[in-house]
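ok so for the tutorial part 2 we go from a plain amino acid sequence to predicted C-alpha cells. step 1 is just haveing the sequence, like this:
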Amino acid sequence: MPTLVAVPTLTKNEDGVLARVPDEYRHYFNGRVPVPFTKRRWEFPGEPVSVPMVRAFLDTCAAGRDSDYRYVLTLLGAELATNAIRHSRSGEPGQSFVIRVDRGPNGLTVTCRDNGTPSTR
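step 2 — the prediction. this is what the C-alpha cells look like for a chain of 121 residues:
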C-alpha cells in the first residue's frame, strides 16, 4: 500500500472559521480521541472554507484508529463535502450541508446531507 500523508491541521486563516464553533463543541475538531459516541453530526456553511473544518471533524471522529483508516475516512468525507458545495444548492449563498458520522460494530459510516439540485444549472 502506498504511504499516505497526514491530514493537514487547520491553518491560522482556517482556524478563524473555528471561531464560529461554540466552546462546548470545539472537541469535535481537535484531532484527539473523542468521547465515545454512536452518532455525531455537524452543519457546515456551504462555502469552500468549510472543507478544512470537515477534515478536522472527521479526523477527530476517527481518532484512535490507524492512520490509514483516518486518512481514507477524512478523504472520502472531504470529497462528499466538496461535492455538496460544488454540485448542490448547499453551495449557494447562505446554504449549508450536514456531515454525520455513525459508529457501528464494523467501523464508521460518513453521510453527507446537502440541499438538493442547484436552483440554476
